[in-house]
## 1
Amino acid sequence: MIFAVVIALLVVAAAVVGFVSISRRDTGDATGRLTRETVKRDRGEVAVSIGDESPEASGREVERQAVLARIESGSELVTADSAPPVAWTPPDPETVGANRRQFLNRSIVGFMGLGLSGFGAAVLAFLWPSRITGFGAKLNLGDIDALKTEIADAGNFLYLAEGRMWVTRYPESALEKARAAYTPAELIGMEEGLIALFQKCPHLGCRVPDCQSSQWFECPCHGSRYNRVGEKRSGPAPRGMDRFAMEISSNQFVVNTGAIIPGPPIGTNTTGQEPEGPSCVGGASE
């Protein structure tokens, strides 16, 4: 009997609990989950604001409001532009990127092109005629009359280091013989009374100085001697002093130091000039 009463009481208690649970679920579905502040307010634990005063929100409520604000702010509709859409152009695969093999191939081709360009530029620079100055070029020695005055002031022998040359006077009386012995490139200057001689001795290449006492050129190396116009008179030299091609332009005496003409052969003596004083080279003889 007691056991039956206990079972009946348990059944009633289970029914009450089930009814209460169903009632709370219905309320939750209708109103949602109440916050702790709402429950406290319902219980009278939170003071209700009067007038303009508002209750102080908790940190959790503030965070919730901030999350809702971010969600709602990103849900606004954006008005699209009225411009027509741009046509899509597929990118060129060559410009998007290159694999390692393509990179190496292009690098090799680029370096080969650079090397060939440098080689071509070097060849052109080698073949292109450069402007020569000084010895090896044409030298304008100035006005003919002024040059003759300089020669006289220098004792009949004018040395010009920039052309490695001696410039002397050629006598007008010897022109008839000169036309039979010299080339036109030499006669151009001789007919104007001038001659340009290379400073080097044709024997072994020594620089030939002038001798003021004899008025000849006398080589100190091996004793070769030449008259004032470079014709050999004695010594071991195989020919007379070499000379340069000469030009006349507007009364200007131009010497082409790049065109060396071999000296006259042994025995050539167009001027007949003899030594005018003692020799500067000891033991020299005719």
## 2
Amino acid sequence: MTTKKPPNKFLSAIEKDKFSKNGWLKIPKLITKKQVDSLKKTVDKFLSKIDKSYGKKNINFLVNVKNEQVVHSFHKISDSKIIKKFATQKKFFKITEKIIESKSKFRKCELFAKPSKIGIKSPPHQDNFYWCLKNGKSLTFWIALDKSNKRNGAMYYYNGSHKLGLVNHVASNIKGSSQTIKDKKKLKIFKKITPSLNVGDALVHDSHTIHGSTKNNSKKNRMGLTIQFQALKSRIDSKRQKIYLKSLNKQIKKRLDARI
């Protein structure tokens, strides 16, 4: 007599099927309001300790009308031990491994903030163009630390676009998101969806799902923390990475030269 395995309590079969079909999934209340408040305090404390000269060199900091340094995105947030401990909790691994059907490892965290009135757009792109992984078995959790909707620059997806595999990108010359899809005509066959999120809700998307976000012209901030995972045996494609870094470094130099 055989016994059935218990269902995965972190992700149902229906949710997995939705992810496979669409390339993304919304998970309501993935974390609690208390956890969100704790994360935001940790983020504020961590950023306050960053050397002020960092903002002069980093392309992901903005300056507002009061000439104050404002974070748009911060790619080193996983340097915070508290953030990294949060990001590597069991449930994130369980959901990831249910989806990619492989053992996984933590990649990194990134903070994406769209301050009210000045939050900039992120053009349509695929995460794995940045990551340069050979097998592409990887995904991103996007956790809402503020409410997120069309009015304040919520993330949008091209439904099912992960099925294209990796597509060509070109330099976007936009802070915080240096690449964008080269042939945007490819996107016309996919429905564009912008999920609304409450605080603590999350989105999880395949690294090949084409996504982006609009400017934040509202009076409400929109901050999200991403947590990224990849297959345990995944490896970097060094040739692709070299091409990407060449484009990135060229854009960084251009922006730094403009400040002189």
## 3
Amino acid sequence: MAQRQDHPVLIEVALNGVSRQKRNRNVPISVDEIVRDSVACLKGGAQIIHQHDDLGSEGELGGASPEEMAAKSGAVYERVLSEHPDALLYPTANWGGTHEERWRHQEILKDQGLLRMAFLDPGSVNLGVQGPSGIPERGFVYDHGFDEVRRLFERAEEKKLAPNMAIFEPGFLRTILAYESAGKLPAGSFAKLYFGDRVLFGHPPTRKALEAYLELLDGSRLVWAVAVLGGDVIRSGMARWALESGGHLRIGLEDYAGPGSPSNSDLLEQAITLCEQVGRPLASSSEAAELLEVPVR
């Protein structure tokens, strides 16, 4: 396995994503709501917080400048870090515009002293939904070719930003492992293996699907976690299988599509209970930074 089973657990909470309050009244949307949930989850034991604050009133994506994106995230981060200065926070992509415009708000936040971790998605994938007829529609290509991936890794290294990487497809992971093998993977690299019940990419949340990723990870030192998009990472069994295999967890209302209307704190409590059952303690903020080798703030 890629990690020892006695490592303390990292928990990332993805607060909202494209989820809206008409689906779950507990989804945090405003700055005050995002700050409230961030502080509560960090106090509850999570170490990493991811938020989307780029959506319009109808949930549309994109349209903001990098400066506007940085200002939105900065309004959250200044308040959260005043209470939890060791927290690892990172924003979403700026979905409109060029590759440079997608990522540059993170460099602005880094220069302001508010960011140590940045999203860096090392591949391309078709994102969309199933239409009424059951076939894919309303999609777009989320694209990062090899040249762009190399540029992002170089920028992360230069800015001392820890790459937080979504693994939509196995090829994303193979790209990361190639950088690791070449000794070019930046410090702090963290990979989330994405599984999905209601998505049109990647693997379903099954034990065999996790084992396929673990086969690729054999011999690697990469720190990894699991997430189930459009489902429930705990009820699916994926969280337990990952913890038993030495992995970590991503939870939160961005991903959750299980029963009821839980809050992010409710989902965190469920994850912590599972960690206790498996016999793996939560990492402290300092242990999380040490495990990931995140650059000092």
## 4
Amino acid sequence: MQWWKRAAITAAILIVAALAVWRAVEWVRNLPPEQSPFATLDLERPIGWATGMQFDRIRTDPLACTAALSASEIETSPIEDRVEGDAGQCGFANAVSLERSLFPYSAPVRSSCPVAAALYVWEREVVATAAAQWLESPVARIEMIGVYSCRNVYGRSEGRLSEHATANSIDIAGFRLENGRVVRVLDGWAEGGPDAAFLRAVRDGACETFQGVLSPDYNRAHADHLHLDMGAYDICS
């Protein structure tokens, strides 16, 4: 083949490739922000397929997480950094106290910034929606077991440090409804019916905002609560 034919073919290939790249860039640019992995996380937006990737960035970027909280309707206040444990392995930095969110909690929530951010979106986009679909009354309060605890996983004397040891996790035991009834994980998970459907919906939806989600389906240690964390392990069970 003559050189000028090769050059023409090469030029045509480059033009086609450049056009494909340009169209791809334009397609991404025109995506709704909740569908774009490049968009900055906005806690007031609905959940989209890229929301998890946007949450991934604030898990490791304290300034971005603080900015996301500040730009939302959630009310938090910073709490003093803490270090404890025999080797200083426990504690938290850049943590916040949750002052006002969509729902109140049964006890004060003092957690890492990413946990507070994920809770806010989960409450609005998942819990409220699932309650409207499956329950006879809206949620009035979320029953919380705990957030911070300086311990290893399952409280063992050895092994990996729990996400609770850095206030990077929260355990949810149930949901008090406006009619006074309480939907508990321990009682409702296996009984079937609307309560079980609601609990599974809030578990499944939590996987869109949290990194680690463990339920009674995971093991017996979680028979009475949903474990939600923003740690390094991506798991939804």
